[in-house]
Amino acid sequence: MQITKSDFQKIMEYVRDALVDQLGLDGKITKPIIVGTLQDVTLEDVLNSLGEKKEKKKTVVFEDNGFESFWKEYPASDNFSYKGMKFTGSRTLRSNKAIAYSLYCKMLSELKITKEEALEALTRHIDALKRESWESGNNKLTYLSEIQVYLRQGKIEPWLEIEKEQQYSNTNFL
Fold first, then answer.
1. Which residue, of 46, 58, 95, 154, has the fewest CB within 10 Å?
2. How many domains does the chain have?
């Protein structure tokens, strides 16, 4: 299939925009994508020459420090059901796992807590919000921060203190 000059220009603009947006190749397209005269260029040539410039995506390996459990426990959105009641929301609460991972590691280090303490505090917080939602009839998860904000602002700290208070009160009565 032969393409016209205007079609070729439209395709190349679209391809460049797609490479810049999807693969982050802005400024990295240095050699001409097509070699030859316009009469010799087919759509297949254009698509084949683009395959040479694809870069592999970096993969992040998470070490076993409890992050996966923390990530799964943190609500993906503010939609949930509790004791037969359904609560609807419109927000995504989990995104960008790599940034959340680095903030999680920083939180563990700065607060000097274990992965178990972090998970228990998060579970206690989420359960409390769901219970309050059920009691009031209003979705309290809509007030929960997105996971990066939650970790960055240390919103887990009050829930860690509750655990310590409970442990202290249990040992005093023994």
1. 58
2. 2
Specify if 164 maps to a domain: yes
- Full domain range(s) for residue 74: 67-172
Residues 71 and 49 in one domain: no
> Would you say 152 and 101 are in contact if contact means Cβ atoms under 8 Å apart?
no
Tell me the residue type at 66: G
pTM (predicted TM-score): 0.60
Question: Are 91 and 27 contained in the same domain?
Answer: no
pLDDT (0 to 100) of residue 161: 83
Residue 39 has pLDDT above 70, yes or no: no
Whether residue 92 is predicted with pLDDT greater than 70 in this model: the reply is yes
Helix (H) / strand (E) element for 85: namely strand 85-87
